[in-house]
Amino acid sequence: MAQNHRDFYTVPEAADALGVSVSTIRRWIADRRLPAFRLGPKALRIKKQDVDAAGSQPHPVAERTPAMRVITDLREIGQMTDEERERGLVAFEQARAFRHELLAKRGGKRFSDSTQIIRSEREKRTRHLEEISKGSAEYRAAKQKADGRAKR
């Protein structure tokens, strides 16, 4: 039986149908968990029946990830469970201890502000790219001029 284009999804359509990201669909295809067909060098198509079958299987991440509490009212943000509060305090204390450990290793000397270094390096890179671009333009102009002379 001949199939038409309505029997297939594009990658974004399959992602939308399954409620996952496009990158997840591409990963499933690469892992051979979801069969797909290539149309030309770039276009991928996925049979709708394969998408439906994938949707009926449990998502492996959903099995491993504990249910998340969804906040629908901004007033709930301040209300944490005792467990959430304890986990937050433990994480905060671990981060503070790590900071002290790093400072001790550096003899109490803090890292300097890197903003100026980053700006300077970006400016150097921009100048370098402009030089390359200018050089390429000069090369192309000279080549075109030489090619023009050669054709005469």
What's this model, at a glance?
With about 150 residues, the protein is mainly alpha-helical. The chain folds into 3 domains: about 5-65, Multidrug-efflux Transporter Regulator, Chain: A, Domain 2, CATH 1.10.1660.10; about 85-110; about 115-150.
List the main descriptive attributes of the protein structure presented here.
mainly alpha, Multidrug-efflux Transporter Regulator, Chain: A, Domain 2, three-stranded antiparallel β-sheet, 3 strands, 61% helix, flat
Describe this structure in words.
The chain has 152 residues and is mostly helical. The protein has three domains: 5-64, Multidrug-efflux Transporter Regulator, Chain: A, Domain 2; 83-112; 113-152. It is built from six helices and three strands, in the order βααββαααα. It has helices at 11-18, 22-30, 48-56, 60-64, 82-105, 115-151; strands at 8-9, 37-39, 43-47. Strands 1-3-2 form a three-stranded antiparallel sheet. Helix 1 (11-18) crosses helix 2 (22-30). The protein is flat and about 80 Å long. The N and C termini lie far apart (61 Å). Residues 62-68 have low confidence and may be disordered.
